[in-house]
Amino acid sequence: MSDLSGIPRSANPVRIAILQGDARASADPAVEFSTILGSCVATCLYDPVARIGGMNHFLLAEPPSHKSQTDFDEHYGLFLMELLVNEMLALGAAKPRLKARLYGGANLHERLAPIGSANAAFARRFIRDERIALVHEDLEGHQARRVNFQPTSGRVRCLVAKYDAVPTDKPLRRPQSACGEVELF
Fold first, then answer.
1. What does the pLDDT read at residue 122?
2. What gap in Å lies between CA 116 and CA 39, rounded to an integer?
3. Which of 2, 49, 71, 93 is positioned for an S-S bond with 157, CB 3.0–4.6 A?
4. Which residues form a coiled coil (predicted)?
């Protein structure tokens, strides 16, 4: 599924993969950001007037309570949200004009902690607290997603993996051929 159909392509598109812990911004109309999400969340921000946008991809919402404020790193949502906003402002975006689209936050397996829901709640709260307009969200559920984002237009294509495409009835096991002794040196 996609929330916008048919993203027009540049003659020579430049696709940039956004991995866990990344935040990138661009004003280049040829750039398209792309990421794959499970329980992680990606935020797509854009300024429709300046035609500047960016994407981040965070693994966890916030550090555990026992960590200090100086322990923030690229895996946490707070760090990556601030980094994304600041990179966009440095390129000429204006915070009052920013629009947000949120993706991911799936709870891929019912027996695991709902990390995806915690990530989704954090992203919604951050966008609300920073007074950034939330124009679309595709959060939570049980599906992995691939997100392609054109930062200058704000257009997004989100492809969702079918829930039954991921086997959940059997625990994953290492194939017998992969088992053996390991020599440490």
1. 95
2. 4
3. 2
4. none
